[in-house]
Design a protein that fits this description.
five-stranded mixed β-sheet, six-stranded mixed β-sheet, 462 residues, 11 strands, Beta-Lactamase, alpha/beta
């Protein structure tokens, strides 16, 4: 090598992640901008086992150039995380990069956490994009604290990268199909009382709609669990179904944040422990359905869920900032450091509000002959009705508040004018509208709820 050539960069440090099944993810990388050598890949994670294609160190460095070139003059707010999506047809890959600022070796650097997939997996990945980005973003929040304290960010990022690889592998093999045959659901039975209790199924569907279509179905029989999962997925859009997962007959999957419906198997003792932190960090509240004992529980509505989620998230980051060692906080430790906020570990409550919308639809479905396409068509019309009601509700609130310029004070009139007098009906339509316009619950109910929480805390202090 001639003396005029630049020195070779060190080999990329690698971690192989053991994943059961085929993982569509090629690799995940953590790279940063070096003021002397340019883009540098500090660490790479890859799934262990057979992959459709592999990446060499040179190709990984080439892809890092695409993610970090042009970011040297990045001007963003402190703590901001920019998400960029690259499709490199010449390399046959797609790259999802999260760009952020952090401190390495005492200097401020522009960093990128990226996941790389084959271009052929684009349609598979897109429905899961929001869930993956949200989980990686929170991992970056914790990682930036670790970098500020001079700790190893790789250990923190590994706690999120490995579960995402497991999630993608499980979705590859057990994802709910976009089109569901109603014959594989409970809604095709002649007599609902034989295979599933009528009151239980109606409550499950009603709560499922009230929690924005997010549900956990647990049980000991995988066939029964999957039948209920498919039934609930009939009330989702095709894209949301592709972000739902059937249970695995051989062993249970872990609970994963960000899925709409997921089936989970109980262990040999007949129990399944849900991770508090993961459930609380879900984007929407969730319904918990136990098909063994026919119980239905649900989390508080969106505005309360978001309120608890944000306070717990701040408490978690605050606790990480106060640590004196990298090993002080295990990943699933429940945080209690904020004296003004003690998380309620029993976050699932009884379904308190009945409805007429789902009840009427539920009864009319079984008046139609099974085995025909009529029931599927009827359910499609029911979802269209809910969508129209949600759009009408949004327009009503826009007009009453002059598109958000004034607070909303006409809830009683809204319930009367839109025929949503039953609390369950209002909850269902509000949940549908929340998915169309994020933050609607907080806009309508947020201030009174926040005030009531403050009052409760004051009263408890006496």
């Amino acid at each position: 090598m001639s003396s005029g050539c630049p020195p070779q960069s060190p080999a990329v440090a690698k971690t192989e992640v053991a994943v059961e099944g085929e993982c569509p993810l090629l690799a995940a990388t953590f790279a940063y901008w070096d003021n002397i050598l340019g883009p540098r890949v500090r660490h790479m994670w890859s799934p262990r086992g057979e992959q459709p294609m592999s990446l060499s160190d040179g190709e990984v460095t080439f892809l890092a150039n695409h993610t970090l070139n042009g970011e040297i003059l990045r001007n963003a707010e402190c703590g901001a995380v920019d998400v960029k999506f690259f499709v490199l047809a010449e390399k046959g890959v797609i790259i999802v990069s999260l760009i952020f600022d952090g401190e390495l070796k005492g200097d401020k650097n522009t960093c990128a956490l990226s996941v790389i997939l084959p271009q052929t997996e684009l349609a598979f990945y897109l429905p899961l994009h929001a869930a993956c980005v949200e989980r990686l973003t929170h991992g970056i929040r914790k990682g930036r604290i670790w970098m500020q304290k001079g700790y190893n960010i790789i250990s923190v990022l590994s706690l999120e990268i490995a579960p995402i690889m497991e999630l993608l592998a499980s979705m590859k093999s057990h994802c709910v199909p976009e089109e569901i045959d109603i014959r594989d659901t409970v809604l095709n039975d002649d007599d609902i009382g034989d295979s599933c209790h009528e009151g239980f199924l109606h409550k499950a569907i009603s709560s499922h709609l009230q929690t924005c279509g997010c549900s956990i179905v647990v049980g000991s029989n995988p066939e029964k669990v999957n039948k209920i999962v498919r039934t609930l997925c009939l009330f989702l859009t095709p894209a949301e179904r592709k972000c739902s997962r059937l249970c695995r007959a051989s062993s249970s999957f872990k609970y994963d944040t960000g899925l709409f419906v997921q089936g989970l198997l109980k262990d040999s003792t007949g129990s399944f422990v849900l991770p508090f932190r993961q459930v609380l960090y879900a984007p929407y509240p969730t319904t918990h359905i136990d098909v063994d004992i026919n119980t239905v529980k649900q989390m508080p509505p969106c505005h309360e869920h978001t309120f608890n989620q944000r306070r717990y998230m701040r408490s978690e980051l605050n606790t990480l900032w106060k640590t004196d060692s990298e090993d002080d906080i295990p990943p699933e430790t429940v945080i209690h450091t904020d004296e003004t906020f003690t998380p309620d570990l029993n976050i699932f409550q009884d379904v308190l509000h009945t409805d007429t919308l789902a009840a009427a639809s539920f009864l009319q479905v079984f008046l139609l002959k099974p085995g025909l396409a009529l029931r599927s068509s009827y359910l499609a019309q029911f979802l269209l009705l809910l969508h129209r009601k949600a759009l009408t509700l949004l327009k009503y609130i826009e007009d009453e508040t002059q598109k958000g310029k004034k607070p909303f004070r006409a809830l009683r009139n809204l319930k009367a004018d839109l025929d949503l007098k039953a609390e369950g009906d209002l909850n269902i339509v509000m949940a549908m509208a929340e998915k169309l316009r994020a933050g609607l619950h907080s806009f309508v109910f947020g201030k009174p709820f926040y005030t009531s929480v403050q009052e409760r805390d004051v009263l408890m202090s006496f």
